[in-house]
Design goal:
Layout: H1 6-24, H2 33-49, H3 73-96, H4 105-125, E1 128-129, E2 134-136, E3 142-144, H5 145-153, H6 157-167
GO molecular function: nuclear glucocorticoid receptor binding; nuclear receptor activity; RNA polymerase II cis-regulatory region sequence-specific DNA binding; zinc ion binding
Domain NR LBD: 34-173
GO biological process, one term: retinoic acid receptor signaling pathway
Length: 173
């Protein structure tokens, strides 16, 4: 025989009702004191190694602001300098995380090497200003999309800006 069984149709209806009911419910999570303490340590470590956008004195440069080029050497130099400083701050942040310093030096280095680029991109993306389509570095240097491309981001530029735009609803700082 071909067709649907009445029992299956009813089960699907019942399933939909249960799912609708679950969507209307909100769950309340209670954090343990240890979890709250760990979150606070991570928050303090982050704030201590990454100034918020409102704490920075923004400035910009007129270098390569109009047209994309393969590489603007002066922007590349500035970007390299800022990246080095950011990597140092990332290491400082990691050392403040619970348990990180108990790992072997080799493991610490492996973790930092594996995560450093992701952390650098995530941090710069939290300093995205959509109105001007700019990103602000830790020293306040603010670059537009073209300047970021010319500073060495190249083909990653549009992906980084797109990711930053997707982070906006999270209101991260």
């Amino acid at each position: 025989e071909v067709g649907m069984s009445k029992e299956l149709v009813r089960n699907d209806r019942m399933k939909k009702r249960k799912e609708e009911k679950r969507q209307g419910e909100t769950e309340i999570y209670v954090l343990s004191a240890d979890t709250e303490q760990m979150i606070e340590r991570v928050r303090r470590a982050h704030q201590g190694t990454f100034p918020s956008l409102c704490q920075l004195g923004k400035y910009t440069t007129s270098n390569s602001s109009e047209h994309r080029v393969a590489l603007d050497v002066s922007l590349w130099d500035k970007f390299s300098e800022l990246s080095t400083k950011c990597i140092i701050k990332t290491v400082e942040f990691a050392k403040q995380l619970p348990g990180f310093t108990t790992l072997t030096i080799a493991d610490q280095i492996t973790l930092l090497k594996a995560a450093c680029l992701d952390i650098l991109i995530l941090r710069i993306c939290t300093r995205y200003t959509p109105d001007q389509d700019t990103m602000t570095f830790s020293d306040g240097l603010t670059l537009n999309r073209t300047q970021m491309h010319n500073a060495g981001f190249g083909p990653l530029t549009d992906l980084v800006f797109s990711f930053a735009n997707q982070l906006l609803p999270l209101e991260m700082d």
